[in-house]
Amino acid sequence: MNNNTVIIAKVVKDKSIYDPGALIKINVTLQNLTSSEDTGIVELRAKHLNKQVGQVLKKEYSLNPYANESITLDWQAPADDFTGYLIEVELKDSDHHRIDDSVVAVDVSSSWTKFPRYGYVWNFTKDVNVAERIEKLKDYHINALEYYDWKYRHHKPVPENLDKWDDWSGREIYGDTVFAYISEAKQVNMVNMAYNMAYAAVSGYQEDGVEQDWALYFSEDNPRGTGHFMFKMADSTPTGITHLYFFDMRNKGWQDYIFKQMNKVFDVFGFDGWHSDTVGDWGEMQNAQGEKFSVTDTYTEFLNAAKAVIGEKYLVFNPVGAQGIENVNVSDVDVLYTEMWPWDKDRDGEYYDSYYALKKAIDRAREESGGKSLVVPAYMNYGYGQENPGQFFNTASVLLTAATVYAAGGSRIELGDNGNMLCHEYFPAQSLSMTPELERKIGDLYHFIVAYQNLLRDGQMETEQTIEVLDYPNNKYGKPNTIWTYAKQDETYEIVQMINLLGVSQDDWRANDGIKETPTSVEQLELKYYYGDKPKSVWLASPDIESGRSQELTFSYDHDNQGDFIRFTIPSLEYWNMIYMVKDK
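Structure for Dextranase, as requested:
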C-alpha cells in the first residue's frame, strides 16, 4: 500500500447470508490521505477457494482532498447453494498501479443450519442502539442470534405488558427493543432464537398452570440433593426469584404446557426458533410416581416432540457439559450446540479440558448426527475474567481455541454485546474485552471460516495419511510444544490442518487464569505428505496470511519405504494454516 495516496478504509456487504442467485451489494469505503484530488479504479474479484468466479467488476472513483467516499459494487451470486466466497477488492490509481487491497467473505446458503455462525444479544434497555449492534454482528457474518434472558419468566416467557417487563433477576426489558432487534436482524438475514430453558420454572409456577405432579425430584440415592430438583441462581433479587425448579421432560403434561408457551412466543414476537437450555447432568432423578432415570436419557424424546410441535421454527438445544450429547446428536434439532466445561467427562471417561477433547467432541457430533456442525460455547479466561474485570482476553488462548474448533469442522458462539466476546455462561457478565489486535484477528478469522466453509465443514472425513514436518515435532493429538497436524478429505480435495502449539506449554483450551503463551512463529516449513490420491495442485490458505487468500505452492513428487508423498515448503505458520490439495482425477 502507498501510504501517501488513497486507502481502503472498510469493505462490507449488506447482509449476513444470501440466497443462491441473490444480488450482493459490496460497499467499499475509500479515504484520501492527501491534499490533492485523486482518481482511480476499484476492482472486485470473487473467488471460490482457488478459482475466480465470474468477471472482474470495476468502478471508477474520484476523491477530493482528505475526503471519504463509499462505492457500492453489485455482485450476482451464482446459483450454487451452500457455498463460501472470498471477495478480493483492489484499489488502483489512474495509471493502473495497485495502491491498496482488502477482502470480505460471502456465504451463499439458503439456510443457516449447515454453516451456523451463532452470536448473541442480551441488552434490551430503552436506549440501546440496536441498528449499530446488528450491523457489527452482520459484518462478522453472524447468521443467527441467541436472545439471552429476554423473557418474562422461564415458564411464562410472554409478559402481560409488552411495553416493559422485568426478567427473573429484575433487569428491565423493553418490548420495543426486543422487537427492534428482531426486525433489524431479519433485514440482514439473521435468524432470531428465543432463549428459554427446556424444563424449568420459577416461583409462582403453580398459579400459572404448572402442576406439581410434573416435577422432577432427586432420587433418594442421589448425593447432590433431596426433594424437588432445583438450582440456585442468586441469593436475592428484586423480583424475589432465586431458584429454578425443574420438571420431567418426558411428562406429556409438561411438554404440552411448555410447547404451548413457546408457540405463543413465536406468535407474539416473531422469533424464528427456540434456543432450549439445561443445567446439565445432576445424577439420578425420579418423577412424582417414583420412576428413576437420568435426565439426559429424556433428551431425544423431548426434542423430537418439541420439533414436531413447533414445526418450521428452528430448534437448538444445549446439553450442558456435553453430558447426554449423544442423545441430542440423533434427535431432530436443527443445529447442534453444547456448552463445554473442562471438568466434565466424555463417554470414554476423559475430561473435556484439552484442545484435542474439543476436536473429539466435534468429530463425534458430526458422525452421530449425519454431518451437523457442532456449535461450542467455550468461555475463555473464565477465572481471570471474574477476578480481573475490565481487563482483556489473552489473544493467543482465544485464537488457539478458535482454530481448534473451526479446523475440526465446528463453530463457536462468542460474539455479541456490541461486538464484544463472551467470557461467562451468564451472558450479561461482560468482564473482559478484546484488544485491538484480537479484534482485527477475529475479523480475519470470520472472513476465513466463511470463505472456506466448503473445506472446513462440508462432508470432509478425517484420514490416516502420514504428515511429516521436517525439523519440527508434529502430532495429531494437539500436544504442547508441537505442530498439531491431521488430514481430511472429500471427493475433490485432501486437506491438512496445521495448528501451531510450538512454545505453548499447556493444551488447556480455556486458559482459566488468562495465561497462554503466543505460539512461536516459524518460517520456511518443509512438509512431506503421504497422499491418498495423487495431487495435481497444492494451495495454502490461512486467516493469518494475506487476509486468507489462497496461495499456490510448488511441490515435488517422491517415494520412500512408507509410500508415495509430495514435498513442499510453507512460507510461514503463526496460528493456523490449512493446506488443500486438488486431486488429480
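The radius of gyration is 25 Å.
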